[in-house]
Amino acid sequence: MIATTDQYAAMLDAASAGGYALAAVNVTSSETLNGAMRGFAEAGADGIVQITTGAAAYLAGGTAEDMAGSMRRRHQALKSSLGDGDPPSCPE
């Protein structure tokens, strides 16, 4: 599940109040993304998936146009999955 802004804030507040950290995984491929998501699900834990602009460019095919298109598709996927939720900012 992709967290809304409010859900993300609640995750951070719970971790702070509980004295624990959230795992953050740097994603460099679809395999690492799938592995991170599977690991969070199997552990029943919240976590953060991060992707650098360099990794995004690589995953998108390497060109600026591909990366911009990939970011637009990601944003549309967020909008679709959240319905009326509050997706994080992303360039259109």
Topology:
Elements: H1 5-18, E1 23-26, H2 30-43, E2 47-50, H3 53-60, H4 64-82
Parallel strand pairs: 1-2
Describe this protein's structure:
- With 92 residues, the chain is mostly helical.
- The chain has one domain.
- Helix content is 60%, strand content 9%.
- It is built from four helices and two strands.
- The protein has a two-stranded parallel sheet with strand order 1-2.
- Helix 2 links the parallel strand 1 and strand 2.
- Helix 3 packs across helix 4.
- The chain starts with a helix and ends in a 10-residue tail after the last helix.
- The model has no long low-confidence stretch (mean pLDDT 76).
Summarize the structure.
This protein has 92 residues and is mostly helical. The chain has four helices and two strands.
Q: What is the number of independent domains?
A: 1
Q: Main sheet, how many strands, which sense, barrel?
A: 2 strands, parallel
Global Rg: 14 Å
Helical residue percent band: 55-70%
Series of secondary-structure elements, N-terminal to C-terminal = HEHEHH
**Termini separation (Å)?**
22 Å
Mean pLDDT across all amino acids? 76
Q: What is the number of beta strands?
A: 2
- Helix/strand/pairing class, anyone? mainly alpha
Broad shape: globular
Query: Strands across the major sheet, in which order?
Result: 1-2
Beta-sheet strand percentage? 5-15%
- Unreliably modeled segments: none
Number of helices: 4
